[in-house]
Amino acid sequence: AKSAGGNRFEFADPEADARAITRHGLTTALPAALDRGEFFIEYQPLVHLGDGTVRGAEALVRWLHPQHGVLGPDRFIPLAEHTGLIVPLGRWVLEKAVRQARAWQEKHEQTGPLRINVNLSPCQLTHPGLVSDTVDILEGAGLEPDALCLEVTESALIGADDDLLKPLRRLAEMGVDIALDDFGTGYSNLANLRRLPVRILKLDRSFTRGMQQYPADPVDLKIVEGIVSLAHSLDLAVTVEGVETSAQAEQLRILGCDTAQGWYYARPGPPERLHELALVDATG
Ligand code: C2E
Ligand code: CA
Ligand code: CA
Ligand code: CA
């Protein structure tokens, strides 16, 4: 410890220094990483709770950093948002994922189309190119708009004015589904939901944690039951995240949730993996 004057002592924190350096290093490395093709996408299946079939997947971006190995999105998405790189990075993810969804469809016609969910950052929402880029990407890949779902966090839409909602409305009119991600964490006014061009609520993992064991926490059950009935009365489908156990899956199915995602079914993985999972469902 070295004296920092007066009666205060400051302790050197090498870990905090290392984190700060890494953050700075990662931020400056981001643009070149996109050029060098260091990003890749893992896909996590979305499973229909009623019949257990794979209906699609969420695209989750990763960075294969030459020194640090594979970095999860929580490490670099905030940095990319801060620097604006999220716009070209997000466009890259969308294009790659949409092409992948088209490839699945072509391989896979007999079992029905697999849909693709892609996360949108708030910065992409306010970017003027969102609608035209999305149209170009869908047309370029030959994917129908209704095979695409864009996930927007609840917090990004809290208090959203009409200017912010306009591009989402345009996309929804074209047939793209909009999902409200991390639902339940943002304290949004439930009545507000009617104003949003949203078709799907993705219930945050924090709500399903109390259902890992059987019987579930009764308060958690009541809350989820209430959300599901509200959502269905507004014609919204409910997807649940973070399903890790069969007890959760079963209780959420009984509560009427429509679709589930989580380690119980599969961790995020390479695109070939999803194809295998979907085929297994189709044949057995
Ligand atoms: P999210 O959209 O809420 O994605 C779900 C996260 O939960 C993913 O973390 C996923 O790997 C993880 N997960 C899935 N199933 C389970 C489970 O059963 N248990 C637990 N404990 N976790 C589970 P991941 O891949 O680290 O992504 C973190 C966040 O990064 C995402 O949260 C999303 O907000 C953001 N993100 C990922 N890809 C993109 C992207 O392409 N663009 C943008 N803007 N954000 C992205
Ligand atoms: Ca998401
Ligand atoms: Ca989420
Ligand atoms: Ca999340």
From TrEMBL:
Superkingdom to which the source organism belongs: Bacteria
Native species? Streptomyces yaanensis
Q: What is this protein called?
A: Bifunctional diguanylate cyclase/phosphodiesterase
Residue limits of the EAL domain? 23-282
